[in-house]
Amino acid sequence: MSMAKLMFVQAFLLLMIYSKKSDGQWCIADEQTPDRELQMGLDWACGIGGANCSKIQVGQACFMPNTVKAHASYAFNNYFQKFKRRGGNCYFNGGSITTDLDPSK
Ligand SMILES: *[C@@H]1O[C@H](CO)[C@@H](O)[C@H](O)[C@H]1NC(C)=O
């Protein structure tokens, strides 16, 4: 096998490993997005989107911090984790990003 081919195979394997790892991805609200837009995404995710938003209701475990960003991140991620295997994606009008970091940590 030539050096170039070997490197190609290596890169391919790394890509496989990486994409497997990205299974543990999180979908959170983008810092840059105005709250007004995040609120719309949040309403969608918790409504038609089908995310389970019970934990960000008043008095529930994830209500604090009570910010649109925190709630949107929770809802986006809940939706994403629930539906990514069925083609759901982390795209809320561009108001969200995927990250490899667990936001709960
Ligand atoms: C939503 O999450 C709460 C708390 O985790 C759970 O008790 C409830 O059954 C869930 N509701 C649905 C519709 O999955």
UniProtKB/TrEMBL annotation:
SMART domains: X8 (SM00768). It comes from the Eukaryota. Keywords: Signal. Residues 1-24 form the signal peptide. InterPro entries: X8, X8_dom_prot. Residues 25-104 form the X8 domain. The keyword Signal applies. This is X8 domain-containing protein. It comes from Penstemon davidsonii.
